[in-house]
Prior knowledge:
Keywords: Membrane, Transmembrane, Transmembrane helix. The protein has one domain. The longest helix has 22 residues. It is built from 2 helices and no strands. The chain is mostly helical and 51 residues long.
Amino acid sequence: MLILGLILLLIGIFASIPILTTIGIILLVVGAVLYVLGATGRAVGGRKVWY
Length: 51
């Protein structure tokens, strides 16, 4: 999710498409939260490990 968010953010910035920039930022934030929760060992959505 982090990588997809970063890709969409960069495409949105370089192509001047504001909706892609917004979606990219949202995906980056959600991906970062899930990454931090997973790294601390907290179960997210009933799973400890996301593949």
